[in-house]
Protein 1
Amino acid sequence: MTSLLQVKNASLEFEDRAVWRDVNFEIAPGEFVAIIGSNGSGKSMLLKSILGLQELSAGAITLSSANEVGYIPQHRTSESNLPLKVRDFVRFGLDGQNFGMAIPSKASKDKVTKALQQVDAIHLRDTQMSKLSGGEFQRVRVAQAIISEPKLILADEPLSALDLHHQMTISELINQQRERSNAAILFVTHDLNPIINFVDRVLYFAKGKHSIGTVDQVMRSEVLSDLYGYPVDVVRNQGRIVVLGSHDHDHHEHEEWV
Amino acid sequence: MLFDFSDYDQLLPLVTNSLWAGAILALIGGLIGVFVVNRELSFAVHGVSELSFAGAAIALLIGLDVVMGSVIGSVAAAAILAVMGNRAKDRNSIVAVLMPFGLGIGILALSLYPGRAANKFGLLTGQIVAVDDPKLEALAIIGAIVIATLLFIWRPLSFATLDPEVAAARGVPVRLLGILFMLLLGLAVAGAVQIVGALLVLSLLVTPAAAALRLSSSQLWVPVLSVLFALVSMLGGILLALGAGLPISPYVTTISFLIYLVARGIEWTRGKARA
């Protein structure tokens, strides 16, 4: 099957450091790819590059259909005060980029209804965005991203600031869209566990290096130790994966997984 | 006397132009105010209006068209803010730097101006009878440009204002729209300075929209209410000021303020009812 997205020898370097170098991968329709790595390893930057909002230092990113991308940005607390109703927020994802006023139409109304039904949030249709809980807000974000029936969904830490229960729900909603429409998913996350049953491949960033492959290929002690440049233990327990850094390296994201 | 309706039937024809000008400004102010509040540009509006005042005062002094001077001043200020003031923090300090400078230059120009004192204060505190036909025409042109452009970019501008990251991802030219909006804002401020005066522009460009946003979050009702509140403040202010022969600004600002208070009150009651 032809690929939706091709990333060829992509590098992102700033004056003082290389964020990542020579990233190569392709994504086929229906694939679920997790992007993992510590803070500042350039996970979000990769999504921005795919969206054309961050220029690459070298290499190329090719999208087969640039208009058919759904985007779920990182949650910011300032967003929780939006003077907007859920239905209008979701509709932005459909035709917010078009000029002119947004005239209400039967077709747009039906699409908003359908998208909200798909994330089980139709009861929130006329609610003010500022009244939503964190979990509800992310549900609505998913609806906004899927309303245009995208071929590719880019999700930037959609699970951050959610409790475990809502992490599972939001992950499932995003995965449902993949099953429904064969959309490919690029999912940035700190924690692989909520999505471990859906993930086909993992792209792991650390210290300017990266590794891509299936969960079994990448989530191994020797692979991650090589990326980090110091010993890292990957522990599997009852279907969950935990990454433990050694103690003499002060900060390590994945201790959060425990 | 604060309120005096004795020679009203004779006074009213004198302010027909002002009423039209007020209606145009209320329409502009009510619509653009929605974005001013949502983009957190209230303080910027104040800064732009002082620069607009400086432009108008200089034009008055050297004998150029006052409206044109006002437009040049405010569009220049808006352009500076559009290019330099991307983040709220930077923007606020730039405004605070520009504002006293503009006010100072304006006061200097007015002090040197040999003409009547009423013209001088008009630019700061507003005037009703000074709207002649050329001025009304200039306002109508400004109004047509601002409103037509604003309606055309309304949807992507709302998207870029309320959800900038997704808007950018969906191909909305977020930065370009931001600059275009600042230019429209500059034009709107220049128009408002002519009628309500530089010191009180906020009552027309911010208060009505702020009141509307307390009452509704609907994409339709917020601009409709905002325009309605601006119209009531403007026209009500002109009609009340007329009889008393005082500047219109205290009347406009008071009505606008009272509407805001009522909106807050309604919001508060609703909150209590729900709880």
Protein 2
Amino acid sequence: MIEPFVITTEPLDPAPLVAAVQTPDDGAVVTFSGVVRNQFGGRPTAFLVYEAYAEMAVPVLRQIADEARARWPIGRVCVHHRVGRLEIGETAVLVVVAAPHRAAAFAAAAYIMDRIKEIAPIWKQEHWADGTAEWRE
Amino acid sequence: MITVTVRFFAGHRDIVGRAEAQYTLTEGTTLGQLWEQLIAEYPRLAGYTGRLLFAVNQQFAQPATVLSDGDEVAFIPPVSGGRSDDV
């Protein structure tokens, strides 16, 4: 049983989420993976640390999925966000959306990711290759 | 008097030096007034005014929200600064 909205320190794997959202009504499943990149604005990154206000972030993720469902005809949604230290190439967030048709699934996945970055109480601390660190805010 | 718990995250926690604190306030104190009190105590928080979200008991709230005894308050620093070139 996959919980739809999760904040976790464990590595993320999209396969169980894809299986969890797909129903016989769905002709499309869109998976967005947010992955730790090796630089920001040309400045080399060593690793990232994510932090969440988990008791609030989980309900906010559910609210964002409900907002998407009010805008597009979509089916099930899963959003899993990792916290703690993440190395370059690791997945920080998975947004998985099922829908009868692909246009709604693509649009809803993009909307959900945009809203996560607007209102979900989840923060990212960039640790630069030169040893300094700063919260992205 | 009422007592509320304030949770600090990310850059706020770095400034305040702890993850949470209890505040005893007069009845009728609003979220916005508590924020002003925190700025007086920690002037480096002032730069966040106008670009943070407020929450009471894990729900988004407005600066005019009146606090109640036992509330858990969070001042939520900017999540991503609205950057679209990120992630």
